[in-house]
Design brief:
By secondary structure, this protein is of the alpha/beta class. The chain contains 15 helices and 15 strands. It has 2 domains: 2-188, no CATH class; 194-463, Dihydropteroate synthase-like (TIM Barrel, Alpha-Beta Barrel), CATH 3.20.20.
Length: 465
């Protein structure tokens, strides 16, 4: 009986000794844009988007944290693997749209819900995807206080705040190993290689095939093909002529071009996709029928060209069947339509994107590259909000943003003289180009010959400052 008791005691004590070690052997366990200081310090400093350096003896580590998802996960993993860290000072400029600093405070105060959403975060995509709720709760227990100095960029004031914190013992539970660490490392690698969505890259720019969109790159023009008579030609001669003309204009004016391939039931999807993919440029998959869109996307994946295919679009009107298909197919690139059927105001668009469309696109469908369409409404239906929303969406989410501005007046001018309609159409495209669009859906590909020179002129104006 005594020997059994001794053996049982030994088995309990041995793992306890291991758990009580304050620092993991490989700490910091995740790479990042940070500096390691004194691992025994009680303080870590998060500078959000501002580059600041601190004396090594002041803190265990310091560095940037720009995103409200992967960035938060890195902070949690490196914090719980060093039980000496009991305080975090958050300072520097807040990350636009992501609210990474505010989100770090929120996760400490409120935790996450059953879907991984950080409760109380203002961020665009505040989801914890790669670590468990157990790890989050451990972080909340370990950190006594997060000092909110968001907006403070004065290094000396941050140092003063860190020095004022009382000395604490290491957290009594010792260091914590996050079991999902390998998954996070894979996501970190993807982020560093530019394989995840622009939201994590913080640049407002992405690349699909050979076309860069957003940031300081030229406006991208997207024109619809196979909406008219060229589809019915067996040899696709007319479609080929129109594509070659648009590509020639693109090269002449140095304005990137992407065709929007409009498909309908009964089309020979494989033939059309084979044709359009032969031009070696990105292309949008478009249709009024969801099963046609998903069938085309599936064929692109089978053919190995889905890195150039852009699903058009993820939107509020998707059926449950389409949502399931899209989740299964995981489009690498997609246009997300910022239309809120209950509230077409700018704020309504932002709210719907934040609560519904972006979480589905990024976390359910695993879209790597997101383009946001501000959702143009016809004149008389709050169309001005669609124009205002372009910059609001860009500032909030940092995705390349544009729209199909030509749709705004299509009903209003349907009985106008043909040449007058062209003038109005070109003027609308020019206005939205001047007002900050990263891409524009300009309608039928036939309009390319008058749209390209207009947008080129706007590009020259924007550079003339």
């Amino acid at each position: 009986m005594n020997s059994f008791s001794q053996k049982t005691t030994y088995l309990k004590i041995k793992p306890l000794i291991e758990i009580m070690k304050p620092i993991a052997d490989n700490w910091p366990v995740l790479s990042g844009n940070y500096e390691v200081g004194n691992p025994s310090s009680n303080v870590a400093i998060c500078t959000i988007t501002t580059k600041l350096s601190f004396p090594k003896e002041l803190c265990a580590m310091s560095g940037e944290m720009k995103t409200e998802n992967l960035g938060i996960e890195r902070v949690i993993v490196n914090t719980v693997s060093n039980a000496n860290i009991r305080y975090i000072v958050v300072c520097g400029k807040e990350s636009k749209g992501h609210f990474a600093g505010q989100t770090l405070i929120s996760i400490h105060e409120n935790g996450i819900d059953d879907k991984g959403r950080i409760i109380g975060s203002k961020g665009a995509i505040p989801f914890i995807e790669n670590i468990s709720k157990e790890a989050v709760e451990r972080f909340r227990r370990q950190i006594i206080k997060i000092v909110d100095l968001i907006g403070e960029t004065d290094r000396e004031k941050v140092i003063e705040a860190a020095k004022a914190l009382p000395k604490e013992k290491p957290f009594e539970e010792g260091y914590f190993t996050v079991k999902e660490i390998e998954n996070i490392k894979k996501e970190v690698v993807k982020a560093e290689e530019g394989e995840i969505s622009v939201a994590a890259k913080e640049t407002g720019e992405l690349q699909i095939g050979n076309v860069k969109i957003g940031g300081n790159n030229p406006i991208v023009l997207i024109g619809t093909i196979f909406y008219g008579e060229e589809k019915n030609r067996e040899d696709l001669t007319e479609a080929k002529r129109k594509m070659e003309e648009a590509i020639q204009l693109s090269q002449q004016y140095k304005i990137p071009f992407i065709p929007d391939v409009y498909l309908t039931k009964g089309d020979d999807i494989q033939k059309i996709i084979d044709f359009i993919s032969s031009f070696s440029i990105p292309f949008c998959i478009d249709s009024s029928e969801w099963d046609v869109r998903t069938a085309a996307l599936k064929y692109c994946k089978e053919k190995g060209i889905d890195d150039r295919a852009i699903y058009n679009s993820i939107n509020c009107g998707m059926s449950e069947e389409e949502r399931e298909q899209v989740k299964e197919l995981r489009p690498k690139n997609a246009i997300v339509l910022a239309f809120n059927p209950l509230d077409n105001s700018v704020q309504g668009k932002l709210n719907y994107m934040k609560s519904k469309l972006i979480p589905f696109s990024k976390y359910s469908a695993k879209v790597q590259n997101i383009l946001v369409d501000s959702g143009v409404m016809p004149l008389g239906n709050g169309s001005l909000n669609s124009i205002k929303a372009v910059n609001a969406l860009k500032n909030e989410f940092n995705f390349p943003t544009g729209n199909g501005i030509h749709n705004l007046a299509s009903e209003k001018i349907k009985d106008y003289d043909k040449e007058l309609k062209k003038i109005i159409d070109s003027s609308l495209v020019a206005s939205q180009a001047l007002l900050g669009a990263d891409f524009l859906l300009f309608g039928p590909i036939e309009s390319a010959k008058r749209i390209f020179p207009v947008v080129k002129l706007i590009e020259d104006i924007l550079k003339d400052g």
